[in-house]
Amino acid sequence: MEMILTPAASDLHARFCAAVTEHKLAMYRAARALSDCDADAEDAVSEAILRAWQAFPRLRDHAAIKGWLIRITVNCAHEHRRKDARVTYMDDLTAVAGGKSDTYDSGLWDTVCRLPMDFRAVTVLYYFEDMTTAEIAKALGVREGTVRSRLARARDRLRTLLEEE
């Protein structure tokens, strides 16, 4: 789909593109200073460009565009860090994945990790976290019958996977 720009919109688009092109390195540096890795910084800059484009028609002082773009970038980088703080990577959990006793069979755990997400979730909650099917249903937002059928299918799949090994 081709975007048709009016002369006024075309001018606005050209000015925005020129400003982003001129200040993209400064935006990246600001984001990188607040991020743990290049990818996070790039994500913050991309989000900042989108937000800036949406707000650009309301910008009153075009002489202050660099500071404005950097402020948006800093806000996006902070927001990205806050969201990232809530993420726990599974690699960080492998040492405690067995629950309270940590006496799980790592081969079994690896096999459970090979299950599809729906089956893996109910299996881990039921066997590793000792939750009832009613508790699992509430946690996952599904019916208790769905949890039971997923557990049955997961057991069948686990049996097949373990026999292959």
Which helices and strands appear, and what pairs or packs with what?
Elements (H helix, E strand, L loop, with lengths): L6 H28 L3 H18 L9 H21 L20 H8 L3 H12 L4 H8 L3 H21 L1
What does this protein structure show overall?
By secondary structure, the protein is an all-alpha fold. Helix content is 70%, strand content 0%. The protein has 7 helices and no strands. The N and C termini lie far apart (51 Å). 14% of the residues are buried.
Which structural traits does this protein have?
7 helices, 165 residues, single chain, mainly alpha
Q: How many individual helices?
A: 7
- Name the helicity range: over 70%
Structural class: mainly alpha
Strand content: under 5%
Q: What distance lies between the first and last C-alpha atoms, to the nearest angstrom?
A: 51 Å
How confident is the prediction overall: mean pLDDT?
A: 80
Could you tell me the radius of gyration in angstroms?
25 Å
Number of strands: 0
So what's the overall shape? Answer: elongated
Helices and strands, in order, run as HHHHHHH
| Low-pLDDT ranges | 95-102
Described by strand count, sense and barrel closure, the largest sheet is: none
